Amino acid sequence: MIRMNTRVLTILILTICLCGTLCAQETRVQTTRNICNATPELNGVYRIDADGSDKLYSVIEGATSNVPYSDQQQFFMDLAVRLTPPDLLALECRGNRISLGSSRSPRINFVADGVNRNVRSTDGRVVRSRIGFERNSLIFTSSGGSEDSLNFTFTPLENGKRLRVTRRITSRELIEPVVIQTFYNRIAEVARWDVFDDAQVAGRTIKQDTEKNSPTPVPRARSTGVESGKADAIREALTQWIDATNAHNIPKQMSFYMPELKAFYLARNTSRDSVRVEKTRAFAGAKLIDIRAEEPEIIFQDGGRTAVMRFRKKYRVENGSRIRRGEVVQELRWQQTNGGWRIFSERDIRVIS
Staple 101 to which of 25, 49, 90, 240, CB 3.0 to 4.6 Å? Predict the structure, then answer.
């Protein structure tokens, strides 16, 4: 399966930076001491241009896999979450030393020297990696390890005003590689390293997506009046939805959904009945379901008639000898009805672990 998530990629790059103490094997050396002088545009803070970028779910829907049909939904859900691009990127290039941070990972430093290295991963497999410059682009490649091959290319455009990031993943579970291009606009000429802030990033992302609808943020400590009452009602609905999930009570869980959902992970414009089928399949045979959520952030839209909720979710599902666990940032979109708040969109937007 696709195992190279953002955290693993960060660790891998850090490992490459420290390879001198980890006995990595150099197989080729290039002289690139002042390569950044030839690529001065790779500096600053960049914000995603969602409209100009490839649509993630369109790319995923066009991918084909050789995994069993019963596992394909989960496989592509995992792939989509891992390919979700960060909202913000911070880059600094000095000589051949690169500093890189994003709204998904803190600042890391490495040398883009074009050297091929072999690094042994925690599971004992050898990962072959290289970071360097080619044709005005910063390129990171990795292969081996989990038997996935990754290629990340950062290309400055329009004298650094824009940045194109191309990600290519090859896996034994994919019949053809998955390639997705994301474009960013530079919003500052000097890198800023406070972009890695989960709460602020979540708020910025929701605001960017909904600013035309005049959203109203509702932090728990500062919400008052009518908005506070609505926020409390949605939090209570979330608690009951999680309790129903942990209790394997699918009928109760389904009572929190609209008849039609605009999004359910990879699916678009799907019915509540289809969601019920998928929930039943996913939880079939599970001896234990343990879902826990941290305090959610809520953004109201459409005059308070709908709301976007994002929160960290930890999960553990036990099915015989098989255990599935992890942590994600989940997004639920709610709509106010005569019967209370109901979900019309459900998806994971980031894998934490």
Answer: 90
Note the pLDDT tens digit of each residue in 39-76.
667 889 998 887 888 877 677 767 777 777 666 666 77
Tens-place pLDDT, residues 203-262:
433 344 334 333 333 333 333 445 678 889 999 999 999 999 999 999 999 999 999 998
Let me know how many helices (H) and strands (E) the chain has, helices first: 7, 19
Q: Domain of 129?
A: 6-196
- Domains contained in the chain, number: 2
Task: Give the largest Cα separation in the chain, rounded.
Answer: 68
CA torsion angle 246 252 254 256 (round to 10): -100
List of the chain residues with pLDDT < 70: 1-40, 57, 61, 69-74, 77, 81, 120-123, 144-147, 196-227
Rounded Cα gap, residues 241 and 201, in angstroms: 26
Rounded distance between C-alpha atoms, residue 67 and residue 307, angstroms: 36
Q: In what order do the strands lie in the sheet with 178-188?
A: 25-26, 117-120, 126-134, 137-144, 149-157, 162-170, 178-188, 44-48, 88-94, 97-102, 108-111
With DSSP H G I counted as helix, E B as strand and the rest as coil, what are the percentages for the chain, rounded to 5? 30, 40, 30
Alpha helices by DSSP H, the chain: 6-17, 56-61, 69-83, 198-210, 225-246, 250-254, 272-283
